[in-house]
Amino acid sequence: MSHAVTKPAGGPFPEGFLWGGATAANQVEGGHAEGGKGLSIQDVMPQGVMTPPTEGATEDNLKQVAVDFYHRYAEDIALFAEMGFKVYRFSIAWSRIFPNGDDEQPNEEGLAFYDRVLDELEKHGIEPMVTISHYETPLNLARTYGGWTNRALIGFYERYCRALFERFGHRVKYWLTFNEINSVIHQPFLSGGIPAPREELTDSDLYQAIHHELVASGRVTKLARELAPAAQIGCMILALPVYPLTPSPDDVVAAMDTAHASYAFGDIHCRGEYPGYLLRYFRDNGIELDVTEQDRADLKNTVDFVSFSYYMSICESADPDAASGPGNLMGGVSNPTLKASEWGWQIDPQGLRVVLNDYWERWQKPLFIVENGLGAKDQLVEVDGVKTVEDDYRIEYMNDHLVQVREAIADGAQVLGYTSWGCIDIVSASTAQLSKRYGFIYVDRNDDGTGTLDRYRKKSFGWYRDVIASNGAALV
């Protein structure tokens, strides 16, 4: 007997839902040597994560200027306000505050810059959400200490956070400790400031680095509750739903094992201890970590909410000959039922509903989607005398994903908000290109560094403004 499957009817978004956008300092700010800023690992990654880091800051590094938010933040925040943003997620560049990472005192010019950014957000009634460490470890900490493989970074990070909480704790309600903490396994230099090729690092090296970040996260979560008791502290993980390629139990187990690799860091942040499946993985693979009793105590400081990025899902198979996904940065097997973006990232709106249900049921903590969006090669055109981008493909992508957020809320998931990734065009993290555009706002700058840096509203700008104004009722 067959049963008809009907599409669930999602309810409205909750009152107070935080609509907005997200960026990272190294991809948007520029001003790489202004205001006392030191070098970060991003200054030696001129081609993004696709090529090895170079010895020094290079003239062809687009991130040195990026889209010049450092000088144009007031103009950009006004545009965010025009769209109706309720929240803006941005990161603080660690090397603006502690230029070398191990400095004794913070850099006042750096703190003052973020004071000015917060002033603008407050003027427009936009809630700030701050990522404390977003892929921009100070370069000195990478080269002198070996990045997060070194336990000393816990103390440096704690000093950095203390400076932020003391200066901004009364102004910022939402804090994220580390961006996509689970990505250290795949991108050790980008995510962990570890200056060694991935193939030269052991699994023990990588998991020790993540352990240090987890301990640091727990320690500063406690610190925030002392210095900024009204604040909410969240973790940030890269969400990656994993489907078995076939109904074979072998494929189901392969998918479970891969999913555990992402679950682990949320489990530790939310439950305060290492899960049994990860301890088994360590035993089976000869991975040994240096874990102190103080570390175990620090991990008990669990987060208030879980934030995550979502771009794609993957399949897994026990068959070693199954075709891997060329655009899937986190591995996995291509899903034959899905289409892909221009960069090979498979598009799966329903996967976002799966993630929201899964995380809510697993952790019972409020959820915040802090990255989701479509990178595409936009074309600036003139319509009725106004320059714009006819990005219906982005509108379709985001509409379809937000419909699934609505469905997950109807399912019972508690979702605090949604910040689209790259709400203004930014330099891509993966390729360091500007031609891979995510924003609702087009920035006139090209991969060769030419352009006026002028801002133009894309078609999606007006669409997102209407979605926010209607609290999601405009979605189709």
Task: Supply the key terms.
TIM Barrel; hydrolase activity, acting on glycosyl bonds; two-stranded parallel ribbon; eight-stranded parallel barrel; single chain; Glycoside hydrolase family 1 protein; alpha/beta; Glyco_hydro_1; Glyco_hydro_1_AS; hydrolase; globular
What oligomeric assembly is this protein in? Answer: single chain
Number of strands: 14
CATH architecture label name: Alpha-Beta Barrel
- The radius of gyration computed from the alpha-carbon positions, rounded to a whole number of angstroms, is 21 Å
- CATH domain fold name: TIM Barrel
User: What is the residue-mean pLDDT, rounded to a whole number?
Assistant: 94
Q: Order of strands side by side in the largest beta sheet? A: 1-2-3-4-5-7-9-12
Structural class: alpha/beta
Q: β content, as a range?
A: 5-15%
Tell me the span between the first and last alpha carbons: 33 Å
Count of all domains: 1
- Write the CATH homologous superfamily: Glycosidases
Family: Belongs to the glycosyl hydrolase 1 family.
Active site: 371
EC number: 3.2.1.-
Pfam families: Glyco_hydro_1 (PF00232)
Describe the fold and architecture:
With 476 residues, this protein is an alpha/beta fold. It has one domain (18-469): Glycosidases (TIM Barrel), CATH 3.20.20.80. Helices cover 37% and strands 14% of the residues. It contains 14 helices and 14 strands. The chain has helices at residues 25-28, 69-83, 94-97, 108-123, 139-145, 152-168, 188-192, 203-227, 249-271, 276-284, 293-299, 349-363, 392-411, 459-469; strands at 18-22, 87-91, 127-133, 174-178, 232-239, 242-244, 305-310, 314-316, 367-371, 380-383, 386-389, 415-421, 441-443, 455-457. The strands form four sheets. An eight-stranded parallel β-barrel has the order 1-2-3-4-5-7-9-12, surrounded by five helices. A two-stranded parallel ribbon has the order 6-8. Strands 10-11 form a two-stranded antiparallel sheet. Strand 10 and strand 11 form a beta hairpin. Helix 2 (69-83) packs parallel to helix 4 (108-123). The two termini are 33 Å apart. Residues 1-9 have low confidence and may be disordered. InterPro entries: GH (IPR017853), GH_1_N_CS (IPR033132), Glyco_hydro_1 (IPR001360), Glyco_hydro_1_AS (IPR018120). Belongs to the glycosyl hydrolase 1 family. Keywords: Glycosidase, Hydrolase. One of its GO terms (molecular function) is hydrolase activity, acting on glycosyl bonds. It holds the Pfam family Glyco_hydro_1.
